[in-house]
Design a protein that fits this description.
- This protein is α/β, with parallel strands linked by helices and 243 residues long.
- The protein is built from seven helices and ten strands.
- The strands form two sheets. Strands 1-10-9-6-2-3-5 form a seven-stranded parallel β-sheet, sandwiched between helices. A three-stranded antiparallel β-sheet has the order 4-8-7, with helices on one face.
- Helix 1 packs across helix 2.
- Bound molecules: fructose -6-phosphate (F6R).
- The site of fructose -6-phosphate has 14 residues, from loops.
């Protein structure tokens, strides 16, 4: 495990973007595993900037996202498809048909999940998986208690996740109660993992994830078992680890 300490969110974003761009430069036809939420927005902005300067080329890149709300489609501005288009895909030369996100509009759970596992297999697996960290230690939408061996599945979101995500919705009642997510098994099969963490509210979860017992009760703790884990976290997120 490598831990890079960043001064703040901006510094974390730049460092994370550097790692992602190195992946794209070293392997132009790579498969990026991507995340939504607040954590990666700054890194995406940095990648867009470098693309616009001519330093990055996404034309052969494929992406697979971690998760999507069940019931939301691309036209819903709260959907993760909408988020990815507006925060990254619309601004770089990625082939949109090579960007994959679980199909939130497929209400047949088994079908949606099988299809997504199939997508991940067909693209040849993930070269680098970008992850944010939930306050409760979740990764993707793998909430505390989920079995490590699960692949893509449908989850009931916990109260803490609904609470954390309501900031993106008009009201808490509008937050979908279920989501499709890659499972821990899909995530752990990525060749490399890049975990980005910012802010004091994540400090406890980050400490437990990296140095606590490996347990499904804190899903991110499984990352300790990955052979190529890079963590980029800011001073606040690392405040309970660094003395
Ligand atoms: C997003 C995702 C989630 C977030 C996590 C942190 O695709 O899968 O696990 O990474 O909830 O969210 P933020 O970055 O908003 O604090």
């Amino acid at each position: 495990m490598i831990i890079y300490k960043a001064k703040n969110y901006q510094d974390m974003s730049r460092k994370a973007a550097n790692i992602l761009s190195a992946q794209i430069i070293m392997k132009p036809d790579c498969v990026l595993g991507l995340a939504t939420g607040s954590s990666p927005v700054g890194a995406y902005q940095q990648l867009i900037e470098w693309y616009k300067k001519g330093d990055l080329d996404f034309c052969r890149v494929t992406s697979v996202n971690l998760d999507e709300y069940k019931g939301l489609g691309p036209d819903s501005d709260q959907s993760y498809r909408y988020f990815m288009n507006s925060n990254l895909f619309d601004h770089v030369n990625i082939d949109i048909s090579h960007t994959f996100i679980p199909n939130g509009l497929e209400l047949d759970t088994k079908k949606a999940c099988c299809e997504y596992n199939e997508v991940i297999a067909q693209v040849g697996g993930i070269d680098i998986q970008l992850l944010g960290l939930g306050n409760n230690g979740h990764i993707g939408f793998n909430e505390p208690g989920v079995a490590f061996e699960r692949e893509t599945h449908c989850v009931d979101l916990t109260e803490s996740t609904i609470e954390a995500n309501k900031r993106f919705f008009a009201s808490e009642a509008d937050v979908p109660r279920q989501a499709y997510t890659m499972g821990i098994k899909n995530i752990m099969q990525a060749k490399k993992i890049l975990l980005i963490v910012s802010g004091k509210s994540k400090a406890q979860a980050l400490k437990e994830a990296l140095y606590g017992p490996i347990t499904p009760l804190l899903p991110a703790s499984v990352l300790q078992l990955h052979s190529d884990l890079t963590v980029v976290a800011d001073e606040e997120a690392l405040s309970l680890i660094d003395k």
